[in-house]
């Protein structure tokens, strides 16, 4: 059996379409490798074993290249963590006392929200500027800025 250039094109399109049903970003690279190989076989006829070898090498290279390019960097892992909010300055919109939570408004969203419930060790009145000292569950501990 001989694999012709248009077989690779059909296989490539089928794999690319299958990626829509199984979105893992792996089948797309197998499909792209098959499409590239189809064009190569059209220009340079080659034996089937070489075609299969080239497809395997291209698929592996494209997949690992994609994974390496979009690998998470250690700095990206901090996004969304509570340390991102430490030191942020906001405006107190509701009085806060030692055992009575208040509310702080930030100029830009902190951890996905611009308003946060807050607690403090000292009484702070609405309208004062506060700094985030810690994130404790679903509220932030603040102190005077």
Automatic annotation (TrEMBL):
Superkingdom of the source? Bacteria
Coiled-coil residues are none
- InterPro entries in the record, alphabetically? Membrane_assoc_protease, NA-bd_OB-fold
Ordered alphabetically, the record's keywords are: Membrane, Transmembrane, Transmembrane helix
The answer, when asked if Transmembrane helix is one of the entry's keywords, is yes
Q: Where are the transmembrane segments?
A: 6-22, 27-46, 52-70
| PANTHER family reported in the protein's UniProt record | INNER MEMBRANE PROTEIN YBBJ (PTHR33507)
Q: Please state what the protein is called.
A: NfeD family protein
User: From which lineage does this chain's organism come?
Assistant: Bacteria, Pseudomonadati, Pseudomonadota, Betaproteobacteria, Rhodocyclales
């Amino acid at each position: 059996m001989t694999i012709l250039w248009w077989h690779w094109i059909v296989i490539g399109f089928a794999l690319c379409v299958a990626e829509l049903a199984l979105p893992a970003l792996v089948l797309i690279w197998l499909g792209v490798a098959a499409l590239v190989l189809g064009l190569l076989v059209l220009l340079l006829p080659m034996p089937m074993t070489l075609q299969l070898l080239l497809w395997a090498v291209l698929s592996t290279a494209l997949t690992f290249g994609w994974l390496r390019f979009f690998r998470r960097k250690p700095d990206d892992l901090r996004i969304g963590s509570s340390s991102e909010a430490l030191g942020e300055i906001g405006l107190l919109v509701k009085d806060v006392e030692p055992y009575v939570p208040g509310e702080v408004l930030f100029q830009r969203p902190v951890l996905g929200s611009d308003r946060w419930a807050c607690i403090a060790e000292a009484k702070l009145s609405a309208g004062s500027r506060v700094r985030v000292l810690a994130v404790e569950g679903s509220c932030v501990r603040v102190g005077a800025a």
